[in-house]
TrEMBL record:
Upper taxonomic lineage: Eukaryota, Viridiplantae, Streptophyta, Embryophyta, Marchantiophyta
Name of the protein in its database record: Ndc10 domain-containing protein
GO molecular function, one term: DNA binding
PANTHER family for the chain: HIGH-OSMOLARITY-INDUCED TRANSCRIPTION PROTEIN 1, PROTEIN MSN1
Membrane-spanning segments: none
Alphabetical UniProt keywords: DNA-binding
Pfam families: GCR1_C, NDC10_II
Domain Transcription activator GCR1-like, first and last residues per copy: 575-637
Domain Ndc10 per the UniProt entry, residue ranges: 109-457
Length: 714
């Protein structure tokens, strides 16, 4: 039994030691935020009468503590004498709530508190009431409504340039000002909190080459974070940024010149990489001469305030502003919300924490001044690479330590190799950016260093200046090179389309002519000028006398026969002249072209002679032939003689005369014959001519065309 009891005691002690250790290793900021507030709660419980259980946290105690001690209390930070004192806001009340809930968790772990979580519905409702009351108070006090909007901070590149120029041009203590510039730019481009920037140490920095980013080599500056406000347990988080399109606000250049000042101008010893313990604790933003002490929050905040005041920029946030304004500028630049979340490390998912690189390139390109799309990275100041004899004069210890790492003559460290290769890159960045920063800030003491008066540097600077002045944007150059190919391709495409359109136009023209002919034939049939002929052949076992016969059926077509089907047949042996023709022009068209798909009478006359029509049909034809011959006679007297055009003009002339006389076509044909029958002794041709010339309008019409004299004998 004694052994069993001892086991339970050991288990309980082990659990308590774990809880105690968790309290000891909690982030300093968490302890700073909770411990003082928990102490206030305990003191209030001890002073409050009626609490038999002392400082044991209960839901009721938390609610009453907030009402009596926190809500409505004036802020404790010092204000100017003429400034109205304000009460604590919702954020402070939530901080007290979280601190007391944390105390309840500790008591529960120690098994001295069996009460439920004190953050009950009543406490939540109390917080909502406070928020509503504070909103009404802000309206009554006419608080600034621009806080938290796009106006709260900076949103333009010109404002960034103004802040950077302030730090570059600030007199005295240049290391501090370059440090503050680095803090500001990294906070902006990597969307980092002020606390995360101040915690940065040298082994947290390295660089990686990003493929397929554009015409210039694209490196990303990587900043590793293992602690922070939302990262209390050493989870790996990564921030990153690119070289900027504008040299004056480039985070790479600012970092390079800051380290250059520390190790070349200030006299600080270059780090030793023999053991990780020699350099792992060196702060990036050190405070004074203590390499392992980070810059104080107050100093960081005051540097931002002074820069904002210099360019007349107003913002409620200071050290945290880069994270907020940077995110807004990314959004204004066109990056997606998902990219902004990844760059700012908001709402991490398991996949992103474990597998992704956290390099949202789209957002990084946007902040660097490039298009969000891939392949547009180009820096003209990278046109010339400085010679190795010049770069070796900056951070000359880099090759020494890299060689030791390579041969294993010092403690092997991935972080050491990454940081040393970053310094090799920063040497090139410093030399390239210096050519243009010297023009922007000519009085800065950094240019007094001997490397910037070295003959090799002067030669390099001249080459780079000329190259930048004469350089063409590769995107534009690529377009110019592609133009001849594009022109040829477009010309070829245009020619192909033209040929196709011409072919289509030709086919449409042919079809139009065919349709026009079909329309003409259909109109002849519909108007009664022509007949629709149905012809059928029967190949049956009939007597031989009928095997070669043809059954022809003529059907008169009226105006409602538009749906009749027309069958094309061979040139017929017989043809019945149209009785529906009423104009001279249609008569001439029947003679020369044919009506309704039937052959022309002229062709029938040529091929079959008088055999195609006999008896009454022949006499009908002979009467109309008088008009046809008159048309030919009239055409022969026109300029050019008998031509197709003159024949049509003659036919049209007769038609106009007929219309002016208001006579029918049959009257013109039959009137002379009627007259001649009463004079049987006179030869018919002479009688026709005589009476047509002397007695009838129809005869006068024909006489005018033929020119026969009325004085003929007989």
């Amino acid at each position: 039994m004694a052994d069993l009891a001892q086991v339970h005691v050991d288990i309980e002690l082990s659990i308590r030691r774990t809880y105690q250790r968790a309290q000891e290793i909690r982030p300093e900021n968490t302890n700073r935020a909770y411990v003082k507030k928990q102490r206030e709660f305990i003191e209030w419980c001890n002073k409050k009468e009626g609490f038999e259980d002392g400082c044991i946290v209960t839901p009721g105690k938390l609610h009453l503590f907030l009402v009596e001690e926190v809500i409505g209390r004036e802020r404790r930070n010092k204000k100017r004498d003429n400034e109205q004192r304000k009460v604590v806001g919702k954020a402070t009340i939530q901080g007290y709530t979280a601190a007391v809930v944390d105390l309840w968790s500790q008591q529960k772990q120690q098994k001295v508190n069996a009460h439920p979580n004190p953050r009950t519905d009543a406490v939540q409702l109390l917080l909502r009431n406070v928020q509503s009351e504070q909103e009404e108070t802000r309206k009554r006090n006419f608080d600034d409504r621009g806080i938290g909007t796009l106006l709260d901070g900076y949103t333009t590149v010109s404002e960034l340039n103004g802040i950077a120029d302030y730090f570059w041009q600030k007199g005295r203590d240049h290391e501090v000002h370059l440090r503050n510039l680095v803090a500001f730019l990294l906070s902006h481009y990597a969307l980092m909190r002020g606390e995360s920037i101040r915690d940065m140490e040298l082994p947290d920095l390295h660089s990686v080459l990003l493929d397929k980013e554009g015409y210039s080599q694209c490196y990303a500056l990587i900043l590793v974070m293992r602690q922070g406000k939302t990262n209390q347990f050493g989870r790996l988080e990564v921030a990153a940024c690119l070289r900027n399109s504008e040299v004056s606000i480039c985070p790479f250049g600012a970092l390079g010149f800051y380290l250059f000042w520390r190790w070349h101008m200030q006299g600080e010893d270059f780090p030793s990489f023999a053991r990780s313990s020699d350099w792992y604790n060196i702060k990036l933003l050190k405070s004074g001469t203590n390499l392992c002490k980070e810059v104080d929050y107050r100093v960081h905040k005051e540097s931002i305030e002074s820069a904002f005041a210099a360019i007349e920029l107003k913002s409620k946030a200071k050290t945290h502003l880069g994270r907020g304004s940077g995110a807004r500028m990314v959004e204004l630049g066109g990056a997606s919300e998902a990219q902004i979340r990844r760059l700012g490390r908001w709402n991490h998912q398991t996949m992103e924490n474990c597998y992704l690189t956290s390099l949202p390139r789209e957002a990084m390109r946007t902040l660097a001044g490039f298009s969000p799309s891939q392949g547009q990275f180009f820096l003209s100041r990278m046109a010339v690479t400085p010679p190795s004899q010049l770069t070796s004069k900056l951070f000359p210890q880099v090759e020494y330590w890299l060689s030791k790492l390579e041969v294993g003559d010092c403690e092997q460290s991935i972080a050491a190799g990454g940081f040393l290769h970053l310094l090799k890159l920063l040497r090139i960045v410093i030399l390239q950016d210096s050519v243009f920063l010297r023009i922007r800030h000519p009085t800065h003491p950094v240019w007094k260093h001997g490397v910037f008066s070295d003959p090799s540097y002067i030669s390099f600077a001249e080459q780079l200046s000329v190259a930048v002045a004469n350089q063409v944007d590769p995107a534009e150059l690529q377009l110019q090179r592609a133009m001849p190919i594009m022109t040829d391709r477009i010309s070829s495409l245009h020619e192909d389309l033209t040929n196709k359109f011409n072919g289509i136009e030709l086919r449409l023209s042919q079809q139009t002519e065919e349709l026009r002919g079909l329309k003409s034939r259909l109109e002849d049939i519909m108007n009664g000028n022509a007949e629709m002929r149905l012809c059928a052949r029967f190949d049956m076992n009939w007597p031989s006398s009928r095997q070669t016969s043809t059954l022809e059926q003529r059907v008169d077509v009226n105006t409602n026969a538009g749906s009749s089907r027309i069958e094309t047949i061979d040139l017929p042996r017989t043809y019945r002249l149209s009785r529906g023709i009423i104009t001279v022009t249609d008569l001439w068209r029947e003679w020369t072209e044919g009506l309704g798909g039937s052959p022309s009478v002229k062709e029938l006359e040529r091929k079959w002679g008088t055999a195609w029509c006999e008896g009454n049909e022949r006499r009908f034809f002979n009467r109309r032939k008088i008009v046809l011959e008159a048309i030919e006679n009239r055409a022969s007297k026109l300029l050019g003689g008998i031509t197709e055009e003159n024949l049509k003009l003659a036919a049209q002339w007769f038609e106009e005369k007929r219309q002016s006389q208001k006579k029918s076509l049959d009257w013109i044909v039959l009137a002379p014959l009627t007259r001649c029958r009463s004079y049987g002794r006179v030869p018919q041709p002479h009688a026709i001519l005589y009476y047509s010339q002397r007695t009838t309008p129809g005869g006068l019409l024909i006489t005018e065309a033929t020119g026969v004299s009325p004085s003929s004998d007989g």
